[in-house]
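---------- Forwarded message ----------

FYI, see the Bacterial regulatory s, tetR family protein record below. Original note from H. follows.
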Amino acid sequence: MPRTADHDERRIQVAEALLRTVARKGLARTTLADIADEMGVSVGLVQRYFRSKTALLRFGVEHLYRRGEERLLAEEPALPIHDFAYRLALTLLPQDEERRLELTVWLEFLPATVTDPEMARMHGEATRAVIDMFTRVLAAARERGELAEGLDPAQEARALDALIDGLTMHQLTNPDLYGDADSRAMLRRHLDRLFTAGEDTDERNTEGDRG
C-alpha cells in the first residue's frame, strides 16, 4: 500500500510541475525536459511515471478537472440558493493566483479537445458534471419559488456554464476590460435575472463588487 501511495503521489507531483510549466511557457513549447527541470529531477524519472508526453498531458488535464470538482464539492449548500449558486460559480473563475494558473493551463489544453478523442471525453465529462450540478441547484431554487417563473433549470444551467467559460477566457486574455470585480459583477447580474426572491438586488451587487 505505501508503495502504491508513493507512486500515485509522485504522479501528482509530476502533474503539478506540468501545470506550472505550461502556464509559464505554453503547451506547445513544454517538453518533458522542462517538466523535469521544474521538479529538479531527471527526464528518466518523469518517464518512469509517464511513458509519453501525451500520457502525462492527459493525466494533467484529469488532475486539473479533479481540483475544480473538489472546490465545487467543498461549497456547503445554504440559503438563499441565489448566494449558493453565486459561490459555486465563483469557484470556477480565475479569482486568485491558483485558479488563474489552472485556468490558463485549461485554455492551453482546450484546443486539443477538437482533435484528441480522449481529451474531448474528459472535457465533455467535466462540463456535464458542472452543468448537472447547476441544474440541480436551479431546480431546487424553482421548488422554493426563488427561480423566475417560466425558466428551465437545465437550459439555464448550460447558459450559466457558457457565461463562466466566456468570463474566464476574457478575464485571462483581456484583464484590462474584464477584471476580477467586473467578472463578479457580471455573474451577479446574470444570477439576479434568474432569481426573484431573497436579498435586495442592489445589496447583492454591492457585495459582489467586494467579492
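H. also flagged this: The two ends are 43 Å apart (CA to CA).
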